[in-house]
Amino acid sequence: MTELPWNEHVSLPLLALLQLLPLVGAGVLLWWGGRLRAAFFGGVFAFAELALALWVYGSMDVANPAFQLAERLELPGPLSYHAGADGITVLFVLLAALTVALLPFYVYVRRLSDQSRLMAVMLAAEGVMMSLLVSLDLLWFTVASAVELALFGYLVGRWSDSPEKDAAMRRFLQFQGVGLSMLLAGVLLLGWSHHDATGLGWNFDLLALADQAVSRDLGAVIFFLLFYGLGLRAPIFPFHGWLPGVALHGNMAVAPVLLLGVKVGIYGIVRFILPILPEVVTAWYPYVTGFAAAGVFYAALLAFQQSNLRLLIAFAVVSHTSLVIIGIFSLDPAAFQGSLLLAVNFGFAATAMMLMVGLVHRRTRTTNLARLGGLFDRIPLLALTFLVAGLAIVGMPGTPGFDAAHLVLEAGIQRFGALTTVAAALGNVVAAGFLLWAFQRAFLAPTPPGRGPMVERANALELAIAGTLLVVMLFAGFRMESLLAMVDAPVKALALRYGNV
């Protein structure tokens, strides 16, 4: 793994600005929030961050696999700041910035309480998330993960009206605390291994760790610590036990969107585990994909049994994250491309579905499928956005999931043969069934008796949110070439570590 020479870097520290701008916005809202229109000023900072993310993209040479725009700051001890970006980084940075840019409008429409504090926490979480995405230091990544998950835990419980919200927050923090402990243990073992092999100080820098082989036995321990730690965040089967409670009793959309929409767990696996531990990954990938194939079916079948839209979407996330894992551990450049685009597609599509469910809840005060129905005539654009998001998740033509799923399944056949790939494809068919079933129950079924007053039509701001989500999904579906080109060079460089071109 390489980094561009210093004289090829831009003089402006774009990556530092990307991390600091949302934190400045959070500070402004906390200090002067009582005197400001929180959603408006939160939106200003969120859109400024999106513009900065687009600037980063424009400053990149996506055909170059090296890390670019690199920044370093030597700090006391092992916690040195080292940031850099390649095409994979930029893909997830754009996803994070676009997702957060939509949330101020949702917060305003839902009329959530204490909006200044809510927007401040959201912006702080975005700044920490950007730090995770651009960090090339594993210890820095781990510390930032702890801060981010603490903010998410606060979001889960603080802005929920469920009587079970405290239990959901505790369960979330328990699971993520275990995951963070395992991640930290794996990172410290990597630093110790590098120190033991080189005789130098403890080092957690990705470029240094990727160039230093780890013994097979120790590498296996480190692999499982890192994989389990990040797998809890993704979440992947069987590490998803925290998700149903958060989905059902936590904050309706803001916390789940930030947790699931940006796919930091998947990003961490691709960014750190695959380049640092190629020999161990090669030894264990059949077992990982076996669990993932089981997870596709397990979560899809559980989704069919749910009577609540929140839980159905939660299990859809688990099912399709398992498909992403199958692609990643196919260890093929085309599969890497497909998996990354699937992760981004699933994240954005799940964001769209959760926001639409939140707007449905604003009208009906329920997400129980038995109490929904008859909504299409009143809120057709919201219903259509929900439908297109569901189709994107299952990879229908015209959506960004189609080409990505095709790449994953093709690579899966070459690596694992027909059985695993057919199982994954059948799981995707089951997913299509339960998502279409949910759409039919929620929007097309007859209005249930005794629901109360007529459902309010969508206002202009809600139409703008739904329309933006719809346009982005369809535009990405028909412009996949640019997204494929963005990650082509870095995934080919990554595949070379596994003997693939």
Structural notes for this entry:
By secondary structure, the chain is mainly alpha-helical. It has three domains: 1-136; 161-276; 291-501, no CATH class. Helices cover 72% and strands 2% of the residues. The chain has 19 helices and two strands. The protein has helices at residues 14-32, 38-59, 87-110, 115-134, 138-158, 165-198, 206-210, 216-231, 243-249, 254-260, 264-276, 278-304, 309-328, 333-364, 380-394, 400-416, 418-444, 460-478, 480-496, and strands spanning 68-73, 81-85. A two-stranded antiparallel ribbon has the order 1-2.
| Structural class determined from secondary elements | mainly alpha
Number of helices: 19
The count of DSSP E runs of length 2 or more, i.e. the number of strands, is 2
Largest sheet: 2 strands, antiparallel
Helix-residue proportion: over 70%
User: Strand order within the widest sheet?
Assistant: 1-2
Which characteristics define this entry?
501 residues; mainly alpha; 3 domains; two-stranded antiparallel sheet; 19 helices; 72% helix
Short account of what is shown:
With 501 residues, this protein is mostly helical. 72% of the residues lie in helices and 2% in strands.
Which helices and strands occur, and which strands form pairs?
Layout: H1 14-32, H2 38-59, E1 68-73, E2 81-85, H3 87-110, H4 115-134, H5 138-158, H6 165-198, H7 206-210, H8 216-231, H9 243-249, H10 254-260, H11 264-276, H12 278-304, H13 309-328, H14 333-364, H15 380-394, H16 400-416, H17 418-444, H18 460-478, H19 480-496
Antiparallel strand pairs: 1-2
